[in-house]
Design goal:
alpha/beta, 12 helices, five-stranded mixed sheet, 7 strands
Length: 255
């Protein structure tokens, strides 16, 4: 299965399908995609994505980033702006309530603060509500930020954890973002003088401890995935069952 889309000037655009789950299912292909900035997509590449089934685009970036590097317009695409970070910064109250033994340093620690921030959690809830709307066969959603590593990475980690993908596969997917830095990526698009935190994170390579850090933060505060799903994401048992029906299938199933 194709993991990366080899676009000319758009990096870190890839498929999340195919990863196995712990209950012998796998993530459906042609259903959920992740990416970095999309402003350099060409007309033929947009046509390729249309043919692939892309119908929703969730933009996790700030207003400043969207103004400087806007997504391309496409009549087949429903675009949704869902900024993951508050303009007021990260609220670390819940992070401070996390047992010290479960706290991580550096980038993984920032991810913990993000997933426990109330503003970000509202974005999580909206994100999964959008995923439930993506309910037609062969229809895909892409979510993206600037580098496709931190905001996109956190969303991908959360989605894959909830789909019961083992941590080693989620870590493998997360670390694929480091390949982007080996390409001639446009550093100007990663530069964000309007938010020095985002700018620093854009230029910091992915850390393999990030996935375990996110899981530790959520379980450290909410005690179980069921509590997190219901209290933070607003997903009932029926919602969660439907989400898994939409985004997973029996292993080796052909679509």
């Amino acid at each position: 299965m194709q993991r990366f889309f080899n676009f000319s000037n758009t990096y870190n655009f890839r498929e999340l399908g195919g990863y196995p789950t712990s209950d012998h299912r796998q993530i459906r292909s042609h259903k959920i995609l992740r990416a970095a900035y999309l402003s350099r997509l060409t007309a033929p590449e947009l046509q390729q994505l249309k043919d692939y089934g892309l119908r929703y685009c969730i933009d996790l970036r700030s207003d400043y980033e969207r103004q400087q590097w806007p997504d391309p317009k496409a009549d087949f695409l429903t675009s949704i702006h869902l900024p993951l970070y508050s303009t007021q910064g990260i609220d670390d109250k819940l992070y401070q309530a996390l047992p010290v033994a479960k706290r991580y340093d550096e980038l993984p620690g920032i991810y913990q603060q993000v997933v426990l921030d109330h503003y970000t959690q509202k974005a999580f809830r909206s994100f999964f509500a959008i995923l439930l709307r993506n309910n037609q066969e062969g229809q895909s959603v892409v979510f993206h930020c600037s580098a496709g590593k931190d905001r996109t990475g956190i969303m991908a980690i959360l989605f894959l954890l909830l789909m019961q993908v083992p941590i080693e596969y989620i870590t493998q997917d997360y670390l694929l973002s480091n390949l982007m830095y080996q390409n001639q990526v446009d550093a100007q698009v990663l530069n964000n003088p309007n938010d020095t935190t985002i700018q620093k994170m854009n230029f910091t390579q992915a850390d393999q401890a990030a996935v375990k850090a996110v899981a530790a933060a959520i379980l450290g505060i909410y005690q179980s995935w069921e509590n997190f799903r219901e209290q933070v994401l607003g997903l009932s048992s029926n919602d969660y069952h439907r989400l898994r029906e939409l985004y997973t299938e029996p292993q080796n199933s052909n679509q």
